[in-house]
UniProtKB/TrEMBL annotation:
A GO CC term assigned to this protein in UniProt: membrane
Source species of the chain: Tepidicella xavieri
Membrane topology per record: Multi-pass membrane protein
Name by which UniProt lists this protein: Transporter
UniProt subcellular location: Membrane
Keyword Protein biosynthesis among UniProt keywords: no
Any single GO BP term: transmembrane transport
UniProt KW keywords: Cell membrane, Membrane, Transmembrane, Transmembrane helix, Transport
TM helices/strands, residue ranges: 6-26, 38-57, 69-86, 93-117, 123-148, 169-189, 209-231, 243-272, 292-318
Amino acid sequence: MNVADHPVFQSLTPVFLLIGVGFLAGRRQWIRGDAVKDLSNLVFLLLIPALLFRTMSTVRLDELDLTPIAAYFLAAGLLLALSIAWRGFNCRSVVMALAGTFSNMVMIGITLVGLAYGQEGLVTLLTLVSVHALILLTAGAIVLELAAAREARDRGGDAPHLWQTAWSAIKGSVIHPIPLPIVCGLLFAQTGLTLPTVVDKPLQLLGSAFGPLALVLVGVSLAATPLAGHWRMALWLSVSKNLLLPVLVGLSAWAFGITGLALVVMVVAAGLPTGANVFLFAQRYRVVEDLTTATMGMSTALSLLTLSAVMLVMSWLVPV
């Protein structure tokens, strides 16, 4: 088979070409800081909810298999715990561990999986997306509060309110423009109704605009990402995120007896670069902010190679 005709090449090339276009636009200042914020709001508050609701509005709950989700989070939780244990229990360590485990499943993953594996693969990914932030970010918030409390006690100060922060993290992860439309779409599907054309068509048009715009914004953000002074540690965190996590997820899925497309989507999702939500923790706790930003940029840039490798290996091991 000609390399240009390989499904992995055909699905990855549009993704990284659009990121490259965004990178060029960012470098040339065609899209500036204020515009990026407004466009991000457009993506997250309008385009992505339309895509997620429409995709899940035809999915029956009895068709969903949650075993791959369990396999994914077993591996991600193990890597998170080992990373924290390796560097020590403090806020800096926890944020770095999250940078090595939290995938960019929305801005990059949805378009990539849709192109590579179609509607069936997208449903599997969106099932994971619906709980990805809730589980990892809530766990991260709790562990960070415990670490912050320990550091506060060591300084002789007052410890933060752990459960109040945990509840805020849970509430913010559920009432959110990503999991909320997924849940609403699933609930609508259980009614047995179908969306009328006058509603379905606008949702389809809005959803189709998500992929290109989201990928261009990833490139714009990448253009503004500094690596100076942080590239060595950012490289190690990127290797953890882009290569080590997919290996662990693959082994976990194998242990659960997962095969076929579900296995492939879980491993590819694990191989996606670091997601932007990790920076929110770095910013909140005022630790490794520059390193987190550098890791997001480096893992995204390296994913051109690492994602290609992961997807090629999976196409050889698990033909779908």
